[in-house]
Amino acid sequence: MEFMRTETIDDFFTGQAAALAGGTTMHIDFVIPVNGSLTAGFEAYEKKTRKSCMDYGFHMAITRWDDTISKEMEIMVREKGINSFKFFLAYKGALMINDELLLQGFKKCKALGALAMVHAENGDAVYEGQQRIIELGITGPEGHALSRPPVLEGEATARAIRLASFVNTPLYVVHVMSIDSMEEIAEARKSGQRVIGEPVVSGLVLDDSWLWHPDFVTAAKYVMSPPIRTSGHDKALQAALSTGVLQLVGTDHCTFNSTQKSLGIDDFRKIPNGVNGIEERMHLVWDTMVESGQISVTDYVRITSTECARIFNIYPKKGAILAGSDADIIILNPNSSFEISAKSHHSRSDTNVYEGRRGKGKVEVTIAGGRIVWQNDELNVIPGSGKYIELPPFNYLFNGIDKADANYLASLRAPVKRYTTSN
User: Fold this and answer.
1) Using CA of residue 31, residue 271, residue 129, residue 205, what is the dihedral sign?
2) I need a surface site. Which of 2, 9, 12, 317 has the fewest CB within 10 A?
3) How many CA atoms lie within 13 A of 330 on its CB side?
4) pLDDT of residue 148
């Protein structure tokens, strides 16, 4: 992904190799439009995938709006196998969209049966926060977290939820990092609204103390958006995941090496945003959630695999071990231990935000499409062997939407037939 004057260090081979070594057999990547064009963006990402070594699908970002974009969305859903579109409420001047565009995008997603996704931070307020922190003379990585506090994530989450309710379309909130955002999702779900909340590994297991580390390279590697939060948010997100308030665990794997992160050595606003997680996810979720007794083994399968396959409408082809399903299987040894290090991981990054972390539950074998690709700590994959998986529209979240719309129209008691009186 081209982002913040650089490009992520992992490509479709190294990122997918990391995934397979960590027990993930398919991922869904974000296509960024080229100069706003969805078609050009899709074609650019098709070229990037020539090195791929496992199954993958696409989401797509929407960064501007006009009739051409609307028509391109139709083509993406009906011909290209894309069933979700992401709207950035952050990154002012780059990817951020306003409420008018968000409403148009939500309406189009609903009509196409595509899932609307949001990166929920108030971009205007983040910009203001950045100015404030810089004026205070804070230029290091800690300024990143200080400039975009949880309240801005909560506000954007609440706004997206309410606008999705207004349109009556399902909503998926990516990388939920704070109590503020999680509580908005909980409230919406309690009222019956179809909202999916996705925490990511970094938010579940890390806190922001590393951003204050005196070594710039160490501190900068933890810069991502929304930021990793203060201690306490992690435990609250774990509890929300264990009780079903949040539904599945992603990674937002978006890696930059220490040289790239150093682009912001004098200004935290220039540090490329993103951390690793695609190789570590299955291990850390097991150790954090199953070993601690917060969730069952069955829950573990659901939040790391099955629910994702259902949401993106490829269950039971994926997310299940059944006759007729793809033979994507991992063998995880709960009694075996793991240790995470940049020296041994498969990402091309020279740093790892989970460096030195040990735990229980190791992926010992990964089988993708019936073929053993990871065994005895060795990877056996070929660049170019990956397959594109089309994702059909109208997942289970759309069930009953038309009836709800009909009930709404029936409840309006309008227009009223009126008469006028004259003297």
Assistant:
1) positive
2) 2
3) 25
4) 98
